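Issue: copy button drops trailing tokens. Both records pasted manually instead:
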Amino acid sequence: MNTHQKSDTSLTDNALRVAWHVSVWVFVIVMVALAWFVATERPYKADDVIGYNMGLVGGSMMLLLLIYSLRKRLGFMNKAGPVRHYFAFHMFLGVIGPILVIFHTTFKIGALNSRIALYSMLLVAGSGLVGRFVYRHIHQGLYGRQTSLAEAEQLLNESAESVQSILSIAPDIEKKLEDFRSYSVVKLKGIWPRSWRFITLRMRGHSLAHAVRKEARHTLEQAGREKNWSHDELAAQQKLAGERIDGYVEAVCSAATYATWVRLFALWHVVHVPFLYLLIITGIVHVVAVNFMY
């Protein structure tokens, strides 16, 4: 792939990323506006046709969340389609289901069984958001496969070679980047120093990348004057240097924190699954209570 093709791909990826972010914000704004309308105007009640069916559909969606777990664990479902499709469906249900249930309540907390079911659902939804945040650090793309530590380290090595090729004229910059890499993997004694490094590593990396990009621009300006680069050539070199610096820092952070993210994801899974079962039980109790006890 040549430079022009890479540039086109990068522009396409950026456009898709912007479109996704805009779509999410539009969705959030619309939901907030609808929530305000329902909470203030009370256009329906939880037990009338609209409210009841909204709760029924939302609750059914939450129940269908189990399909993803079944697909991963039951051998006879191995040929029932790629896991990533089930995960995408799981994510969709995990967003729309709670929204429908919350709108079903008209933002009023009712009887004890209703409160327990609602709180259980909020636990599952909140846990799902946390899991999604952890998930993105160890998987490729939104619904992609899990990366391996070897792949993360390979990407780091490729990024290191890339940085060396573009910044060979700036040994001070390379040393700073190498020092950051050394800091990211040095063995620290005690859980608190290791935890603090894990929490702050990306912030340190972003700060370093910002400073190094600025230094690289000045270094390349000097090199450009010596080599009589045109304005476009200088701009291209500066852009390439910035991209490779950012890529290297990101690769260092990903490789250094990968194992911790994997452990956190496993721990999250231990917590999330019982929450899901609790939701199913409380949801069934709520449905029985509403339909047969009131």
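Record 2 (pasted manually too):
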Amino acid sequence: MRALSQIYELLLFQKQATRYSLFYENKHLYGRRKNFNGALWSICNILGVNCDQLNVTNMQVYEDELGLTNRDARKYYENGIPVLEQQQFSIVGKREIPKYSDALERLLIAEERRENIEMGLAEENEIRNEFCMGLPITREKNEAAYFCYLLIDPSKIPSMQNCIFREFISAIFYVGKGKRSRPLQHLCDATKFRQKHVEQLPEKLRRILHLWDHGFGVISLHIFFNIHATEAFIREAAMILAMSRDNLTNVKKGEFYCFSEMWNSKQKEEFGARLFMNAYYIFKNERCRPLMENELGH
């Protein structure tokens, strides 16, 4: 099933990969290369196609393109660089890829290698001590009614059940905070703009409408409930910084308050990366269902 999911992702996002890279992407599942090759052969046989038609390219061609020797090739794939689209050079030419903060990149690589690294814990404890045990200085009404949320593009997640951390991160297109039905308001705004035939739409709303128009819904993942407004602002800002605003549809970069204003950039990024990892675990357990346009009650 995992091999089929990998092939589906290649075709859906028009990526290319080698058999070698696909095997090392999930080596812990396949065990030996012959197991993956057997699964790939079965898929080709059932569909009546060859590997090239499934975007699984010739490994030697790819290695020649990258200038790899046979000795280097295995180490190259084992270091977690599996998909041609993620390389500076590829058979299909150069492509722009997401660039996250150093902290989030380190966490992504550690997760792929099944390594356990700790980051952002000191900042998490500092925030908790400030807002849970003390008397918080809030910029809005002093009520613990806020939460953070992520708008997620389900078209970038081939299998919800087997979603990996990098897929989850790549699918996030907006980070927000609010209370009550604030996340739903973005979807309602998109519908209203469509009905008014507005041409100049914010990128966030265009992304929502694009998903609906192509048969996908929008996942609204709510995280970090029952917090003060100021804490929600801090968590939102840290996640935006860790992700990099270039990879999001957020217009503003977010704001830090109280003790968090004294954190350096590394601390802020590591805290944001930690929050994304926590959100990923919530997503894996929640099994969130995408919302379609006709489900908004208008």
